Amino acid sequence: MTLSTLPAHATEIEDFAGAPDQRWDFFSDRVMGGVSSGGVAFDGGALRLTGTVSTANNGGFIQARLKLPERLPDDASALVLRVRGNGDQYFVHLRTGGTLLPWHYYQAAFPTGPDWELVRIPLDAFKPSTRMVRATPSAASVRSVAVAAFGHDHEADVSVDWIGWE
Length: 166
Description:
about 170 residues; mainly beta; 6-stranded antiparallel beta sheet; about 0% helix; about 50% strand
């Protein structure tokens, strides 16, 4: 990947250089009794989330999460990701200071295809998982970003090689 393929006005959050396996955590619905399985691999400068998502036993997700080392600035309006996948829809989950319980998060979907593509997700496109949190996340309150396979039975295969904000 060359920097010319990324938007010049976006600021990098993660490029998967160095030791991304020490920054990213894998979670699945098994923490709540679900049966989904999967994992995260870091190869070729990208995160690859794969597995089987099952809605059996009230489950239905696998995800890789990055705790942000710094908050987004107040004027950040969108997240930008470079992604590819198996053609399924995937999600970005955001957690903030107001998402205290495990099932509290903000979610926005993105499509995938076999080729690397930039996906821009405005912060106001993120929807809360519950009415217990504010309607739209504020940029400065975002504490973590997750890539998730969620909500329906399927074989997950999604890769991300760059995340930023604009």
